[in-house]
Amino acid sequence: MRILIISCFLFLPFMGYAQLTMEDFLQSALQSSAVKVFDTQDDFLDENPYKLSLIRGLEFRTESNQLDNDRQDYTVRLNPANPWEVKRNNEYFKNYQQLLQLDRQRELKEVMKIHYETIINWAYLNELKKLKKEEQEIIKTSIDILAAQKFSSYFDANDYADLKIEQIEKMVELEELTFGEDAQRSNIEALYPLAQNQTISWTLSELIPIEQIQYLVSSQPIFSRVGELAYRQKKIDLALSEWKLDKSNINIGYIKAQYQGYRIEQERKPWSIGIGIAIPITNPNKDNMTKRKLEIIEAENDLLVAKTEQQVGVEMVKKNLQNLSIRYNNLQNRLDSLNIPALASSLQKIEDSNPITMIKLRGSMIKSKSMAARIKKEIYLAYIDYLWYSELLQQQPFTNYLSAGLN
């Protein structure tokens, strides 16, 4: 028992700092309250609480025939439900349930987009912090070199003062990034409470390569009939089924049975049966039917707008991705063409070369790397926008579109 207790204390710190994977964080979108409310509604409708009774109403009447207490009449009147109304009512709620399921997919798509963007922003902040720390080290090294050159011709008092001020500025910038990371972590924990006991180490380097994004975007269809378009089409179906329900919501008549006990003394049968059929001259729900027609027209227009927005949105995002990729590739090619090791070797061979020159070059490289990281972040965000328009984010089973293996 003592060994077990000691083991628990030894392993407890490690248990509390498990790695939060991107896949777990993305899967947590299904537990969002905005998504689960649709599941609750769907489960409720699965029990068919909307089914109408075959009997609309049952009445019991009694009246005194000719004000004679011995001539009391009794009547039972049954109003059957309109079979067309029962059918239309079932169709309406079936369409409504299907609309709920499509609306759930729309909401899930929005939540997934937020989760993806959160991963990208965290990875970008992580990259900036790393570069900012590297920049601080370069400034510190530059200050140390200048301090060592205080009595040589290489020493420049203005450069030394500027570096001291820049060192303070970089410390403040790093603190701001740390505060931003804390705020981002709070956001992650709000989206996924289990993240409170886990470490988060998402980096830009582990995300899907830019070249793979370009391939996926070029190979995916630019137009889809699922998602938003299916939701808009179902809105039309729902408005139409509601119009049909209003049209059939009329009283078709009644069936009644009447008992007149005094007829027994007259040697006549006391029971009589009556049937009434209602023939409406005009539909009493004409005003509601007009409203439904207007809703159908509006829903049809919304579908056309959604089609246009999807087509235009996909093309705009693809164009933006293309431009960002060109900028990123050009910047990477320029950085690679510098050939830093060869340049450093050349500088070292120059007899009068100042050692701080190479340090300044490294500092400039950090700025270029920061620019590359920012462009890379914009590419990933545009990539998620493309997946959003293509209705791929909410498809199940889930695919982690930010992983190289598309896990």
From TrEMBL:
This is Outer membrane efflux protein. It comes from the Bacteria. SUPFAM superfamilies: Outer membrane efflux proteins (OEP).
